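Quick one before lunch.
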Amino acid sequence: MSDETPTPSVDLDVMASLCKRRGFIFPSSEIYGGFESTWDYGPMGVELKRNVKEAWWRAMVRERDDIVGLDASILMSPKVWEASGHTTNFNDPLVECKSCRKRFREDEIDAKACPACEGELAEARQFNTMFKTFVGPIEDEAAIAYLRPETAQGIFVNFDNVQTTTRRKLPFGIAQQGKSFRNEITTGNFIFRTREFEQMEMEYFVMPGTDDEWYDYWRNERLNWFVRFGARKERLRFREHDPEELSHYSTGTTDIEYLFPMGWAELEGIAKRSDYDLKQHAKHSGKKLEYFDEASGEHVVPYVVEPALGVDRAILVFLLDAYQEEVVNDEKRTLLRLHPALAPIKVAILPLSRKETLAPTARKVWDLLRPHFMTQFDDAQSIGRRYRRQDEIGTPLCVTVDFDTLDDDAVTIRERDSMEQIRVPIANLLDAVRDRLPDL
Ligand code: ATP
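Model of the adenosine-5'-triphosphate complex:
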């Protein structure tokens, strides 16, 4: 956060169109007319997504010695959701218009009349947003299971497994990434709110009574993570939940909000979950979920602080903050100033022409770089068009192989942001590229 007045980012339809045109994100089932706010990640999008997840994993697990990973299954015992309170509490207030029958989430509309036709709205009723399915061939009550609405419960039910196999001392965390599903009443704003999405959550287990300080710590850590990987500080802020707004498990929640084109909205939530989940699972399963504190010689139920982020929402923020339009030589240049660690392609190898004399050298340069970085080889169309294409997918560096290369064994590195070009001997190319891609 900073004192600078934030300017909103580019509109979502501009971003959605770039994403489609350049192979980041396609509407799902598009040849059938699309399907209800579902999206598919294309060749560039899948790289970006992997990189965003990797940047999180790196900051939360790899660079620390107090957090370990987990990959729990999406389908879990229905008893998990009874214990966690989701079966009774994971509800959104649904209102229906008496005239046009459209449905809305009550807390998302200001007016008392229907936003679509101004008709009268019926009383709100609670709608459980967990997706139901059946496990096995018989579709009866006993076979009902849920697609998980959050990854967190997979962590809580594995608390004992992880603690005993890793012998961790408090405080320690368990991190997880994976798909979650919520039957949202309203979706939209591109990939901001969908029914199938991916989450990155970490449950940080601490000694009871120390959760306030860890809550502060994790709020700051998480905010700094966004800035480290390219989000603009002035478009981020903390918003603390009012007591009546808190989820059933929470004793305090802060949202990191981002100034989306439609206004400030939640990007990530950091919640104090107290000992609620472990105690609930201990009660419902009959298994002890405790930690033996050697200092006091007592068993305690740890308290929990949880940062929970949606992968797709993070992707949207990094894309919006990277987007830039400028005029260069009377022509519009659109670029994504993505952090090198997030950019789908790190280096593009561009032979100046398709002439056969250049091909073997250009291939040699490609072979030199591709074991180390995600690269792309592109020899189609004019060099200007190829630079523009790479700018638009956020490639930080282009390496151009030209006819002089055949004589001087050197190539040109062109930087995305400054458009600066420097000549480098092929013998030094790998180091020169590494130097220009910090924090990979
Ligand atoms: P909201 O109040 O907006 O429905 P929430 O407070 O229920 O969201 P959390 O349960 O805190 O959301 O989920 C943690 C994170 O998961 C959110 O900050 C968001 O980044 C992501 N997330 C939640 N729901 C969705 C969704 N339907 N689509 C995409 N991402 C989501």
